[in-house]
Please model this.
Amino acid sequence: MPRSRATMTAMLRAVRMIAALALIATALCPSASAAPEAYTAAPVWGSCSEFFPVGPVRVPTAQCGTVAVPIDYADPDGAKAQLAVIRIPATGQRIGTLVVNPGGPGASAVDTVASMGLALGGSEIGRAFDLVGIDPRGVGHSTPQLRCRTDAEFDAFRTEPMVDYSPGGVAHIEGVLQRFADGCLNRMGPEFLAGVGTATAVRDMDVVREALGESQINYLGFSYGTQLGAVYAARYPDRVRAMVLDGAVDPGLAPIDESLTQSAGFQRAFDRYAADCAKSAGCPLGTDPAQFVARFHQLVDPLVARPAATTDPRGLSYQDAITGTVSGLYSPRFWPYLTSGLLGLQRGTDPGDLLVLADDYQRRDRDGHYRNQQDAFTAIRCVDADFPTDPHAWVEADRRSREAAPFLSYGQFTGFAPRDVCALWPVPATSVVADATSPGPGKVVVVSTTGDPATPYEEGVELARQMDARLITFTGSQHTVVFNGDACVDTAVVEFLLNATPPAPGLRC
Model:
């Protein structure tokens, strides 16, 4: 029976307090930007109600403000972006600042730290560190806010099935993607759009570090936040005291290879979900593992021609059914909602839980308003790496993707495929993929989860190798784990952050 949208969305947001839902872009070469390092700015502190107008931040000591940074560091006196910053001061014997980034790219670090302040306020971490969240330029509460489309345009985008891989269908899909890219360019301008990548974000982060009066930072990055941290550590190694990277990406992967690795991770998550579902009578995917994918397609593929009716007048489109499924695979805590939605499709009743999962992933609220996380996600990933423009590269990627993740593949291989929107992006990439480097012995700990669908385990293993970092392996089927309830992981992370004591070699939790 479908859960209420309000209750379910609240639960989803609570679970995602730290680890933001989002797919992970490729990583950057830290040497790509040659901007001079002379720019400084002072924070302008104000009321946290500027960022949280609906209600007060429930941490009374929280300080909120902005730090101005140039749109273009080559023109430091030119137009500025205002980076939103939150700081929750340490309540005990202070060690320093712990900068937190929840990932995305595009998730708000300000919102994350506001939530973490409640969870960690009385902990050893809350006593020892100022908790700091910095919304990268264009993201969250920073201004100008990166927006590529209106709420109505986003709703319309989600009705597109995007599955017709005939020549005409591919042309139509690329037209939809090109209009999205053009909307970004027209609304944000080429200068701002070209400067939203990770190479600039790490420079911004260092400006905030100096504005806060810190000679070094401690850093906790989740998901894409591991990329941001790795690039910062490579560019400013002496300014890192301790860094924890959870749900790590492999910065050496090219864009298509990264996407295929992630697709395979979600297929493994789908297989685990289906096997668990099959333990219960009436599982919509049946009980035969050989038929799980086929049964899934029998339920969702008809939505290409006709969306399913829901209590929400939008109905459930094919794209939303796939997005909702992927959203549900981020953690076993979401599996009951995924099953509920699929049962609705099977029985011809309300599959609305899939729509709620999709709305949460796309950051749409009950009033129909979208946060800008998905627009920022796309704009950042598109300037973070060089995406192939040759259509043949994407045809081969489609062939490999169908092998890696059959549950995500519609129809048969046609020999035609649309290019990624980033191959059509209107501004050039600012960085290229490259391996990470170590900021120094004992400064980095990587945490990787064996069944992480979004940032597969092997990527964390590889990042730890590149950064000469100690690795914590967590056995589980979720995306990120630090400060999410596992005592084994949290004890090791806290000891590292407080005392610079690395976890035991080969630690498994």
In short: The CA atoms of residues 70 and 148 lie 21 Å apart. The two ends are 35 Å apart (CA to CA). The first helix runs from residue 5 to 15.
